[in-house]
Structures are given as structure tokens and as C-alpha cells.
Amino acid sequence: MIPLYKPYVPELPEIDTILHSGQLAAGKYTKEFEDKLQGYFSHEMILATSTFNTAISVAITSCGLEYGDEIIVSPMACLASTQPYATAGLKIVWADVDPKTGTLNPDAVRKSITSKTKAVIHNHFCGYPGYIDEINAIGKEFGIPVIDDGIECFGTTYKGKLIGNCGTDMTVFSFNPVRMLTTVDGGAVIFNDEKLYEKAVLVRDCGIDRNTFRDELGEISPECDITFHGYSATLSNVNAYIGIQQFADLDARLKKQRANAKKWREALSEYGDYKVLESPNGEPNYWVFGILAENKRECIEKFRKHGFYASGVHINNNIYSVFGSKATLPGVQEFYDSFVALPCGWWM
Prior knowledge:
Helix content is 33%, strand content 14%. The protein is an alpha/beta fold and 348 residues long.
């Protein structure tokens, strides 16, 4: 059966040398990987992190979110995209989605804003871009930051721009094994504010300013103060090297996935009467090919019989008691009841 996901592992000629070099933690390959990211996005304020969770943690701390603050979140997301905010003690306020796209409904976001709202987390479901301009405008209108959750959308474009370059305050990416670009585990944060970025450099590294942390003997200097709470969240040389090798044929793999999506559009009617998931303002990376079915279970079973591992991928997170209120959201329910993902990857 053709799998829905598959890790991409290129040739790694230097991996054994790195493993025996004695330099496994953040180092020259970490810097080179960040340089690659900066070149890809034509954007300088990017930090690589050890995990997607720590990318979110760095973003939260850098923009000043504190325990008990309210944030607006889409429940149609990977649990890895929502749980870190709850773990940080933030109060999750679920907003409804557009059932045609699976992404946040701007009207629902606006209606959810109160005087306690401190941020909006905008998930781009399964690599399909949401209503970025509309939600960013709402954030600016109310003076609250917007964080684009790009967990599955590395390489996705919105109105001709890569997600990460769309004017959002911050964008977080995941580089876990089945993402478009993988470091086995890792993440990144893109900033659009220089002060936030400079703060995040310290936050990512336990609040340490490496320019003053050690004295002329290489000893930790008592003159260096730690003024920010932070994390040990730097990406290792090993993970960074794996990420660097991913760039060699990244564009070719994206092109292949978009060609596969075109083939699905042409062939879909052979399998039944299904609607293609809409992406009105951009081009997905086609991490998966999304369709909407009247009978979800029947659809999944049919495609699996044809040799394609179809799946609903995510469940709506507002069912989980860990988040508190189990909000009833009609758009979310309609989308969840109909969304099916089909394999569309470079391996097909």
C-alpha cells in the first residue's frame, strides 16, 4: 500500500565524521542550516530549534505570553501544535474553521476576541494555506500578535509568497521525520520584528548572551547576567547536517508533489463523487492531497482497497478535556466529518 507519509533521507556522507568529531551540539552545521533557511526564505531573522515544541516555546516567551493569558487557536490541528500552549499554562479559546478549507474562519476569530486575548495561533491545515491577510489584519486591528503554525506547510505559498514571508509576526515550522524538510527532530521560528528576534536568540539558549558569557580564559563570567527565562533549545550539529542535505532536491520533491496533485484532480472522479479541498489563495506543498467526502469512513476504506493509505490525519482537538472547554463548533465538525487525506508525496 502506498503510505500517506514517508521520511526523506538523502545521502549523508559526513555523518560518521560528525558523530566522532566530539562536536555534536550546536555548531558550524547549525549555523549553516540556519543560513540555508535564510537563503530559502530570503529572510534573516530565523532561528532553528531542537524540536517543534521548543520552537513554539521560544515564540511564546519571546512575545511575552504568560501563564493564564488567553489565545485563540484552531482545534483542527495536530496535537503537537496545540498541546505546548496548554502546557505553558495559556488558556485556549477555540475558534471555528471554514469547512471548505479546514483553516481558521476570520469571522470566528474576530468574534472570539476579548480584552483578555493575547495572541492568535493560525494553523495551516495539512499544508493548505489559510486566510493569512484577513487574520493578520485582525491581529493588527486589535494589537495582538499572530503566530502562523506551519507545522505541515514548509514550501507552501500564499499569494505567491512562501508561508513564513507573509507579514505574520512569527511563523513556526516542524522538521520532524515526515515533514517536507526533516532534521529527524527539530523546528524553526521566523520573526518579523528585530527586537523579538534578538530576544529569541537569548531565549533559545537559556537566556545566555554568548558574547559575554565566558571570560578570556573560557570560564563562565560572573559579569554576565541572565535576564530572560529560556530553554536549551538549540539544534544539534547532527540534526542540522541532515537538514542541510535536504535542500539539494527540495524543489524537485515539491514539484513532484504538485504534479501528483494534478494527477489526483484528473483521476479523482474515477473513484467517486468527492470534492477537492479548496486552497483559494495559495498553492499547498501537497504534504497530502485533501478531499471532502459525504461518507468519510467509506471513502477511507475504498482508497485503502485501491492501495492508497487514506486517513483523516487529525482529530479536532476541542474533544480533549486537557484543554478545558469542549466548544461546539459547527464548521469544525463539518470539516472533520468529511476530510480525507490521500498520499501525494514524492515517493509516488
